[in-house]
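Weekly sync, protein design subgroup
Attendees: M.S., D.O., the rotation student, P.L. (late)

Item 1: inverse folding check
M.S. brought a backbone from last month's batch and wanted to see whether the design step gives back something sensible before we order anything. D.O. pointed out we never logged the input encoding, so this time it goes straight into the notes. Structure tokens as presented (259 positions):
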């Protein structure tokens, strides 16, 4: 299936049930620079459910991904983009082998993932599980994530976020950030990460911020409770000099972590 978009407003509620396997083109160029393979936006009261698998066929894309060290790289498609959606849930489906991030959540309110599965090899490049940004009241519940990057990552403007009963591994753990790279970033606050298990991950719990950057968003009211870690290389990291591939100068940091 080529890249598709569902764009509202639409008459609510909407339910999409998937019980088979849907595959993206193997050649990343066949998606014609689409930022998301499946893009859904401006739709409220949406339910996506079933035992279906969205297979991104990402292996070729991973082999040619140099975005970690090349700021002008060609970014490949994410499996899902959920943008500006309210009162919705994704339940029981699987995202497999995305060419880039598996899921990006932007500008959403009251959005839940429950019983969601994400799977990709630990060697896959930039295959973050669920990335959340500029969204309020997002829940990731009873979810299994195995990937090559962060299992869950919270970008700026993530507020009232709950991550509960999530199994992560392989991957890079559960992260806040990176933050501070861009101007006008919003605070990350009221976050609860509870009853999660991280196994065979590079990192456990991580907060990462860019030094000498224009953004000054604070990080407030963070709670990490009842976390189990097994064979985790770096259990807890607060990195205020996050500078992958030396893309910045490590000077004074501006992000404030209050609690």
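Designed sequence read out in the meeting:
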């Amino acid at each position: 299936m080529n890249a598709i978009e569902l764009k509202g407003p639409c008459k609510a509620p909407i339910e999409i049930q998937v019980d088979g396997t849907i595959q993206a083109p193997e050649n990343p160029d066949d998606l014609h620079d689409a930022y998301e393979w499946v893009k859904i936006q401006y739709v409220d009261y949406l339910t996506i459910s079933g035992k279906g698998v969205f297979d991104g066929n990402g292996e070729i894309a991973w082999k040619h991904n140099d975005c970690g060290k090349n700021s002008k790289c060609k970014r490949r498609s994410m499996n899902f983009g959920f943008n500006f959606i309210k009162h919705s849930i994704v339940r029981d489906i699987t995202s497999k082998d995305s060419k880039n991030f598996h899921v990006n959540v932007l500008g959403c309110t009251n959005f839940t993932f429950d019983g969601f599965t994400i799977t990709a090899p630990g060697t896959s490049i930039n295959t973050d599980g669920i990335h959340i940004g500029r969204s309020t009241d997002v829940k990731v519940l009873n979810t299994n994530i195995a990937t090559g990057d962060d299992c869950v990552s919270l970008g700026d403007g993530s507020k009232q976020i709950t991550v509960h009963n999530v199994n992560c591994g392989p991957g890079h753990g559960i992260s806040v950030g990176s933050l501070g790279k861009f101007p006008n970033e919003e605070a990350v606050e009221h976050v609860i990460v509870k009853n999660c298990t991280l196994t065979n991950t590079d990192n456990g719990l991580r907060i990462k911020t860019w030094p000498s950057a224009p953004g000054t968003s604070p990080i407030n009211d963070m709670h990490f409770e009842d976390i189990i870690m097994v064979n985790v290389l770096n259990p807890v990291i607060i990195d205020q000099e996050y500078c992958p591939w030396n893309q910045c100068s490590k000077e004074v940091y501006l992000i404030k972590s209050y609690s």
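Discussion: The chain has a mean pLDDT of 92. The longest strand covers residues 136-146.
Action: P.L. to compare against the previous round before Friday.
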